[in-house]
Every structure is written in structure tokens, then in C-alpha cells.
Write a structure and sequence with these properties.
This protein is mostly helical and about 260 residues long. It has one domain. It is about 70% helix and about 5% strand. Helix 4 runs antiparallel to helix 10 and helix 7 packs antiparallel against helix 8.
């Protein structure tokens, strides 16, 4: 997911940091998080590089749009938008059926075939290759644009949106979605980090420690992802999203159960 989904709520709720400074620090941590775990995913052949490059085109355009809108929206709206995005993502992940143990062998057609995006990944047990197809690419591109836009506005690394989008629209295995999203989020964050730096929202005393912690956490998380089943990851993902969404929604209406924002 990238650390941004946790960094912004934690900094605003527990440390009283202004949400725009928290978002800027989160953008920096997202870049560090992507760099810290991408190598492990690539080594285990979970990342679909061709798909990541195609989707990143739409995501970057979305991030640039978000940079233009950032700073023009009130903090309460950002909290509310953050909560809505979290709840929608949790609902999408919860509604998706479990991945079949035996992948289908339907004919591969469409954009995924034309661009040679279909691939496979090794099973956690036995190392057998599990093939998968990339479906409904145009819908995925539109969702990636939205993910990039929200990423720039909220500093969440867009993994919180990319993973459900790949999971539900492109029909990718969850481990492949997570690894490919992680490969993309660094580039998406870099597209918007410059604007936050120019506006003076990046505070080194906040962004530095957050980025360092993200690198360590990303490296540990990459090892856990490889060993844990997809359904356990899905349930954890949904639970975390729901809890954070409730807290951010309360913050949008000025109700602070823990901490407080500046």
C-alpha cells in the first residue's frame, strides 16, 4: 500500500501535524517505500513491469492534475475525501471473490494480448508457475488516472487505490497487484513531490525520519507478502482501511478521538 496510507492519519491524529505538511512528508516516504521493497518483488518475479509502465502513463497525468488542485482545497475536505476513498477501497476489496486455486484457461484477447501484458508468477509452495491475464485495460487506465490524482492530493502513494483497481478491474492476483503497485508508486509520488517542495510543505525534520522508517518497514513487508496467503492479506487490508476511514471521517467534522491536528 505504501506507508502514506498510515503516515497521514498518524501524523495528523497523534502528532498534531498540519495535514498539508503530513501529506508532503508522506509523499517523500512513498518514494522511499517503493525503493525499499521493489527489488525483493522483482527478484521473486511478482512485478509485471510491462503493465506497470503502461499504467504509469495514466497515473502520472493524474498526479500532475492533483498537484494543480492541491493547496486550493480546504483541510476538512481533504479529510473527508481521504475517508471516502478508504471506505470505497475496503468495499471493493471485500466484495472480490477469492482467487481460484486453478487459474482459468479462457482465450486471451484485447489490449492485454496486444501489448503482451499477460504473465505468470511462482506459487509460494512448490514454485509452480501460476498464469494470469490482464483484463479490461481501458477501465484500469481510467482508474489509474484517478489514483494518481488522489495520490497527489492526499499523499497516500495511490497504492490504496491501485491495488483494489488491479484486483477488481484488471483481475490480477493480489500479490501481483501489490508488487506492481509498489513498483509504480515511487514514480507517481516523484511527479508531485517537486510541487510540495516548492510550496515549502516538505519539513525535513518530519519527512526525514518518516522516510527512513518507511524504507525499513517496506523491506520487512516485502518478505512477509511473499510468504503470507492472499486472503489473509486481503482481510488485513480491509480491516486497516475501515479503521482509518472512520477516524479520518470524524476528523473531517472536527471530532478528534485521539490526538489532534494543528
Amino acid at each position: 500500500m505504501a506507508g502514506g496510507i498510515f503516515v497521514v492519519p498518524m501524523l495528523t491524529m497523534f502528532c498534531g501535524v498540519d495535514i498539508r505538511q503530513a501529506i508532503a512528508a508522506s509523499i517523500v516516504s512513498v518514494i522511499a517505500c517503493s525503493c525499499g521493497s521493489a527489488a525483493s518483488y522483482l527478484r521473486h518475479r511478482l512485478t509485471n513491469i510491462r503493465l506497470a509502465i503502461v499504467l504509469e502513463l495514466a497515473t502520472t497525468f493524474g498526479a500532475l492534475t492533483g498537484v494543480f488542485l492541491a493547496g486550493r482545497l480546504p483541510a476538512s475536505f481533504l479529510f473527508f475525501l481521504f475517508a471516502v476513498i478508504l471506505l470505497l477501497s475496503a468495499q471493493q476489496m471485500l466484495a472480490r471473490r477469492a482467487e481460484p486455486e486453478n487459474p482459468t484457461t479462457t482465450a486471451r484477447t484485447g489490449w492485454g494480448t496486444s501489448l503482451r501484458l499477460h504473465s505468470s508468477y511462482p506459487a509460494a509452495v512448490g514454485g509452480a508457475e501460476i498464469p494470469y491475464s490482464v483484463e479490461r485495460l481501458p477501465i484500469g487506465m481510467m482508474l489509474m488516472y484517478g489514483a494518481g490524482l488522489v495520490s497527489a492530493l492526499l499523499g497516500i502513494g495511490s497504492g490504496v487505490l491501485k491495488i483494489p483497481a488491479m484486483d477488481t478491474a484488471l483481475r490480477l492476483p493480489l500479490k501481483v497487484s501489490s508488487a506492481t503497485s509498489n513498483f509504480m508508486i515511487g514514480a507517481t509520488a516523484a511527479a508531485s513531490a517537486g510541487a510540495y517542495l516548492v510550496r515549502g510543505d516538505i519539513v525535513p525534520a518530519i519527512a526525514g525520519p518518516v522516510a527512513l522508517g518507511s524504507v525499513v518497514g517496506a523491506a520487512v513487508g516485502a518478505r512477509i507478502l511473499i510468504a503470507v496467503s492472499s486472503e489473509r492479506i486481503r482481510l488485513l487490508f480491509v480491516g486497516v482501511l475501515a479503521l482509518l476511514a472512520i477516524q479520518m471521517l470524524l476528523d473531517a467534522f472536527g471530532i478528534h478521538l485521539v490526538g489532534g491536528r494543528a
